[in-house]
Amino acid sequence: MSSETVGDERIAATLFDLLDRRRADATLCPSDVARALGADEDAWRVLMPRVRAVAATLAARGLLRVTRDGRDVDAEAPGGPIRLGRPKHV
Length: 90
Known about the structure:
alpha+beta, Arc Repressor Mutant, subunit A, 3 helices
């Protein structure tokens, strides 16, 4: 699948599908989502900003938790790697 044809809904669905395959307290890297959708390394790297943007939107709606070093953060804020997981209330 090329990065141009991947919509936000598909990114979100893939993110939640990957989370559903893990333990309830597990997290994943945004690159896991991008790699699942990108046809090759160039494609998944292009998807990374969109994956982070979708994660930020989902977190703002309370549907996802975005952390860095165990602390909640904005998915699009600079500062290093982030992890995506289920919100605490789920």
